[in-house]
Specification:
Elements lengths: L28 H10 L10 H14 L4 E5 L5 H9 L4 E6 L2 H5 L8 E5 L2 H11 L3 E7 L20 H4 L4 E7 L2 H15 L3 E5 L8 H8 L5 E7 L3 E2 L8 E2 L12 E5 L9 E9 L19
Parallel strand pairs: 1-2, 1-4, 2-3, 4-5
Antiparallel strand pairs: 5-7, 6-7, 6-11, 8-9, 10-11
The structure holds S-adenosylmethionine.
Length: 295
């Protein structure tokens, strides 16, 4: 997924806030999510994936550790920073841009960069049952035009893999609507609460964060703890499965997501979830633009 942003990277102070023809979460997000769950992607592995992912598989083979993913790491400043925060993990900065990765500094001993498509890494992590302790998505391209909904991570078929391997998840963005949509998708897939909050770091951990701070933009952060993957009983020692791969796992519940933004004194909005009834039903597209809805 090309991100459409200039390859030369950001310069401090010259960035403008996201402009969009969308004033609220996309009305079609609910139906897109339902479609992905009903028809999981059966895309064959692309020919280039094996070579791209081999360095990670090899490193994990020789040095088994929990993984911390920094998806869309750009110049990997955040990857180096995460390595200091997660000294016991292998921190992997993933980016598809050779140009950006070429500008990365030397990585600490417990970190590496990987030129690959993030969605391929997520899929492999899920299929191999790799232990993902934490996953960061820092300032993914917002794709702010309504017609580009499907390019946003939360509307991408790869979201089914992203939610399946569990761990702590953190997304940062300079577009509030992206944060709200992403939080909604997390709650929809995993029935976990996902908080959307204003994010005002004292110092930047990535090139885009620095650019946005320098130009005074508002930043937002989504955090959630995803359920640990489960192993299928009928596949001994086999592929680890998350709730997304087992739609029946939540069919005992009807999910009623109340995406009612509650602004608390700590400036947090919470996407709350209640579970009741017998079957999960489809989200109504209008759900995202109203303050509450039933599914
Ligand atoms: C807006 S930049 C943010 C970079 C970095 N996280 C930061 O905060 O400075 C988005 C990055 O995501 C990368 N990207 C976009 N789609 C990707 C994909 N499918 N797989 C891997 N990287 C991707 C782009 O190459 C780009 O470096």
């Amino acid at each position: 997924m090309s991100d459409g942003s200039p390859a030369r990277g950001p310069a401090a102070g010259e960035s403008r806030a996201v402009a969009s023809d969308q004033a609220a979460p996309h009305p079609r997000l609910g139906s897109v999510l339902a479609r992905h769950r009903a028809r999981p992607s059966e895309r064959p592995w692309p020919a280039h994936a094996a070579a791209a992912l081999a360095p990670l598989a090899e490193r994990l083979g020789s040095e088994p550790r929990p993984l911390v993913l920094d998806s869309g790491c750009g110049t990997a400043e955040s990857t180096a920073w995460l390595a200091t925060r997660h000294p016991d993990a292998l921190v992997v900065g993933i980016d598809q841009s050779a140009h950006r990765l070429a500008r990365a500094a030397a990585m600490p001993a417990n970190a590496m960069t990987l030129r690959a498509r993030a969605e391929d890494v997520w899929r492999l992590a899920r299929e191999r049952g790799w232990p993902v302790a934490a996953h960061y998505l820092l300032y993914p391209n917002p794709w702010p035009k309504q017609r580009h909904l499907m390019r946003r991570w939360h509307a991408h078929p790869a979201m089914a893999d992203l939610v399946a391997f569990g761990g702590a998840l953190e997304l940062r963005t300079n577009w509030r609507i992206y944060a709200e949509e992403f939080a909604h998708a997390l709650t929809w897939w995993c029935a976990v609460p996902a908080g959307v909050g204003r994010w005002a770091p004292r110092c930047a951990v990535s090139a885009f964060e620095r650019k946005y701070l320098a130009s005074g933009q508002r930043l937002y952060r989504v955090t959630a703890t995803l359920p640990a993957p489960r192993r299928r009983h009928d596949e001994p020692g086999g592929r680890a499965q998350g709730s997304s791969a087992r739609p029946w796992a939540i069919s005992v519940c009807s999910i009623s997501v109340l995406l009612k933004p509650i602004r608390t004194s700590s400036r947090m909005w919470i996407a709350g979830t209640t579970l009741s009834g017998r079957r999960a039903k489809r989200a109504r597209p209008s759900a995202l633009v109203s303050t509450s809805y039933s599914q």
